[in-house]
Predict the 3D structure of the following.
Amino acid sequence: MNSHALSHPELSRNATKDEFKHSLSTDQKDINMTTYQEYKAKIAELENLAETARKSELQAAKEKIAAIMRDYGLTLADLGPVAKAKPVKTRAPVPTKYRDDATGQTWTGRGRAPKWLEGKDKEQYLIK
């Protein structure tokens, strides 16, 4: 039997094929009659329910953890050091190595050479 029949609220485990077909056609009509706005409203409602459930579960977890810590006389310090994120080192900008005095364009000398330097002697544009 299709899992849809098992999950449909109007059908029991012993639903007949005719009842099942009727249920599917009814569901299909419901789907065809549902608008985008109705779906968006249902999504918003489900998101609110999910957030409420999440908050409730988090609160229950916190209470459980607090009870365990109380029962065993534990403190946060007893749990050990919290791993700290390594600080992200910011790279210093690469100094400019070449400049075209006529246009003011520059290049660090890293990566692909710019078009303004193509076919020219790089040494002439070297910043001293």
Observations:
- Strands lie at 98-99, 106-107.
- The chain has three helices and two strands.
- The radius of gyration is 34 Å.
